[in-house]
Structure formats: structure tokens, C-alpha cells
Amino acid sequence: MDTIGMMDRVVAEISALVDHVSPDQLSGPTPCVQWTVRDLINHVCGGAQMVAMSLEKGAVPDDKLAQFMAGDNLGDDFKGLFHQAMTYAAGCYKAPGAMEKMVTLPFGQMPGEAALTFGAFDVTTHAADLARATGQQPIDAALYAEALAIGRQLVTPELRQPGVFDAEQDCAENASAPEQLLAFAGRKA
Known about the structure:
This protein has helices spanning about 5-20, 35-55, 60-70, 80-95, 110-135, 140-155, 175-185; strands spanning about 100-105, 110. The chain is mainly α. It has one domain: Four Helix Bundle (Hemerythrin (Met), subunit A), CATH 1.20.120. The protein is globular.
């Protein structure tokens, strides 16, 4: 798998979706029942910065980790700060040696490539969440199928927790790849 190439597609996909979110949609619900649209974008923005800093420095200081995971990462310019975070992340994951570097994240220490692979699955799932929440059509249908295949390899029973990945939901066999991904991630239709 071309991890960097896939992550570039993930960044392009979620960025295009964020670009089409209107300010009046920010308070709307998402398939992640604990989050509004703004909360979801904020989570992806903070997560991107957390992984980027881990790739750049090996780990994230506790104060920065708290900001990325629970703080406001969007301010008054949700699109601008989101794009800054994506640019920062892309610069870090494309840096020489980033895939081999050991990084420390809240869920353990791993090579950069493993962190990025999980990130590709997670962010693509959130792209599907965002598309559904805002009435948008996902753009790169193949990306969602690839993310689902990754998720089937990575999501263990320990990760199946309320608020993370709920139990897999039933899904029609002919459902779109984004809908199948959301069902796999435990999102209710």
C-alpha cells in the first residue's frame, strides 16, 4: 500500500468536504452522536496536528496533546485553520524518514507508517461522517472502500467502545462504500 499516496487522497477528500461546510451547518449533528459538525472538524484538525507533531518530534508534549485532543483548534476561521493543520500534517508525513520513525501517540508507540495507516482509516471515516452530516456526496468512492479494508484489519474488539467505534451495524449489500464504512465504524443509519 502507498501510505503517503493514500493519505494525500484522504487529505484532499476531507478538505474538499470541509470547504463546502457552511457556518450555519457547524452546530448540526453528525453520525458521531457526541459531536456536532464543528466538533468533528475540530477533532480531525487536532488529530492531524497531533500526528504531525509526533512525526516531527517523536512525541507531543502533554499541554499540546490536551489542546489537540480537547481544545478549540479552529478558532473563528474553521476552514483556514483546518487547512493549515492539513498542510502541516502533509509536510510532516512526507518528510524523509517519517514512515520509519517511531512515534508516541496516546494509544501507544509505533512506526510513523502504522500511525498514518490508522489515520487514513480514521479520517476517511470522519469524511464519511461529515458528508452524511452536511448532505454532501463523497468524492473519491474508492478511498472509502480502501479505508474499510484497512479498518477490517485494524479495528480490534478492544477498539469497539461507545464513542470510539461502536458495534458494527447492519448494512445493505449494495450500499455505497462510504455507507459500508460508516456501518463498520458503528454509525447508525
